[in-house]
Amino acid sequence: MVRAINRGFDILQLLSRRGPMGVTDLARALELPKSTVHDLLTTLQHEGAVLRDSERQVFVLGWRLFELGQRVQEGMEIRRIARNYISNLSRDLDETVHLTVLDGGEVLYVDCVESTKRLRTYPVIGVRAPLYCTAVGKAIMAHLPDEQVEQIIDQYGLARFTDNTITDRGRLFQDLAAIRERGYSVDDIEHEAGVRCLGAPVRDHAGTVFASISVSGPTMRITPERVEELGHQVMTTADEISAHLGFREGRRVPASDNSSEVLRVR
Fold first, then answer.
1. What pLDDT score was predicted for residue 262?
2. What pTM was computed for the model?
3. Which of 13, 146, 187, 263 could form a disulfide with 135 if both were Cys (CB 3.0 to 4.6 A apart)?
4. Spatial CA neighbour of 82 closest among 249, 247, 211
5. End of a domain among 36, 61, 86?
6. Which residues span the domain enclosing 10?
7. Domain holding 12: CATH number?
């Protein structure tokens, strides 16, 4: 499997450097049997990574690679834009603040500003986490269409991480409805023992939720009495980031209308 992945990347790199190539030329350049190269190209074509020009009998790079590149670029762009906002929030609260983007049926942590306190949550940049039991994840999940949430649950499940993890589908939908109502999410020791987090969604210019931020810390500091206060502070910062991205109040995309967007990192 690993060798096949390596060879697949070799094909993509060759097409990137040399342009359109046929099976014979690729096989010769890679010193592989034509049958092996053909099988690899079939898989890459199925995934949209390469396209076949039937007239010239050659292969070229596919639009799927452009889409993936755009996702990387957009992820880097939101990180650049949000950096000052999450830095200010972390400084004001002296707690750790994370920035995430939606990636498939999970969140991907793309930036973090740490608390200066000795007892704190630590950065997890580059790590993926579930949607249903993290503040950053629920902040996004609450704005996905119900049918998409169902698909994500079917694919990823509702595994238990702590005694507080919501593992019942009905309870989760109730929690998501409450998040939409108040504007911020709560990870009430649901993903990691001893840690409480508050999250809020980030919207693009069209009003689509594609990212989120959170403040997290030990439960001894982020107490139930502070949840509402901190939740509103996180929500205010998320709204400021959304405004920077061009979002204006009143342009929110209803969850039922953005089903084509929910599995895209924007």
1. 30
2. 0.69
3. 187
4. 211
5. 61
6. 2-61
7. 1.10.10.10
What does the alpha-carbon distance between residue 83 and residue 194 come to, in Å, rounded to a whole number?
A: 27
Contact 194, 188 (CB under 8 A): no
Say which residue the tokens 């350049």 belong to: 29
DSSP state of 21: B
Closest CA to 225 of 246, 253, 196, 203: 196
- The per-residue pLDDT for range 195-214, each reduced to its tens digit, is 999 999 999 888 999 999 99
- Work out how many domains the chain is built from and give that number: 2
Examine the domain organization and report whether 102 and 212 are in the same domain. yes
Report the distance separating Cα 47 and Cα 64, nearest Å: 7
Task: Look at the block and give the residue holding tokens 């957009």.
Answer: 74
Report d(CA 179, CA 175) in Å as an integer: 6
- Nearest residue to 166 (alpha-carbon basis) of 140, 194, 130, 200: 130
